[in-house]
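Re: the request from the purification team.
They wanted to know what the chain is likely to look like in 3D before they choose a buffer screen. I agreed to run a prediction and write the result into the notebook, where they can find it.
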Amino acid sequence: AVLGPSFSNIILALAVVFWVKYARIIRGQIIHVKQNEYVDAARVIGDAPWRVYVKDVLPNSLTPVIVQATLDMGNIVLIGATLSFIGLAEAGLAEWGNLVADGQAGITAGRWWVATFAGAMVFLWSLAFNLLGDGLRDVLDPRMEAR
């Protein structure tokens, strides 16, 4: 709200809010992965520290980040639509929150489909990303294979 209404400001606000969660996830995963035996083995055979991180630690730390990112995309779409609905996006921008806000007045005038379909798309988009994240978690989480 301080920077004015624009789509890039909405993205900036969401990045400021969500980066802490991802920093914590990455930090925790790197600490966990560094304790594995294959990392110690790479150090023992003489790999450079940067090579150990790039080839062993980083690829094995990214799975939870990828899953969390797909799960958060549904929330980001909802938050972005909410912020544009209350007027923090550009007025002429065809964004789902703006479409719902514009269609709100049309509901009583018989143009119910504008707000309904825009709201349904927000719901379906959020649901699709949540199902994608759930599926990725099932595929990428080694603990899920035991079930």
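For the purification team: The CA atoms of residues 26 and 62 lie 7 Å apart.
Please add any questions underneath this entry.
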